[in-house]
Amino acid sequence: LTAALLVVGISAIYFLNRYIKNQIIFSLEKEFPSSEFSYDDITVNALSGNTSISNILLNRNGLRIAAKKVDLRDFSYFTYVRTGNIEIGLLELISPEVVVNRSDTTETSPRSKDKAERSLMVKKFRSIGGSLRVIENDSAPNSLFVSIKRIELEKVFFANKEKVGLLPFEHTYHQVESDSLYYDMNEWQSITV
After folding, report:
1. What confidence tens digit (pLDDT) does each residue in 62-98 have?
2. Which helix (H) or strand (E) segment is 161 a member of?
3. Does 103 have pLDDT greater than 80?
4. What are the Cα distances from residue 30, in Å, to 26, 55, 113, 128, 141?
5. Sign for the pseudo-dihedral over CA of 171, 173, 179, 181
6. Which residue, 28, 38, 137, 150, shows the most beta carbons closer than 10 Å to its own?
7. How many whole angstroms separate alpha carbon 23 and alpha carbon 127?
8. Nearest to 122 by CA among 73, 51, 162
9. Measured between alpha carbons, how far is 166 from 136 in angstroms, rounded to an integer?
10. How many CB atoms lie under 10 A from the CB of residue 56?
């Protein structure tokens, strides 16, 4: 009897992990066309609420994000089932390379009602390693490059309303560690730190 219960329990956990993984894949495919988003693998641990996505690449509306690994920890199933909102304990990016091409932005279509009514709360965001580039276009001299050691944000909140300003979210705390900064203003002037 104990062995049968153990087999049933392990099978239930396996199928729950598989179901959640399939739901994540379905949601990603629904949100992003394959030309804009790719990844190598997704692993899920439903009991702990953890998910890991390896080698992601997002290329959308002038924003390109590539990361070796994205870890989502402590997903709150209770909040999601009760309110439909998403609450994550920790979102961690490992070695992200972010490129913002300001000349390559296009108009986005209006958000659907389903997306507009949900919010996302990340209790802690962490980025380890990587870089940030902000460019006008690939050949323009007006560009910024920052090599990132570590970024930490707390209580990051993406509300259902459109955010006006540079950042599309609110947060209560931030800490940034960088080992180099380069800003190329034109062919005669640049700043290096």
Report:
1. 889 999 999 999 998 888 888 888 899 999 999 999 9
2. none
3. no
4. 6, 19, 15, 29, 37
5. positive
6. 28
7. 25
8. 73
9. 16
10. 19
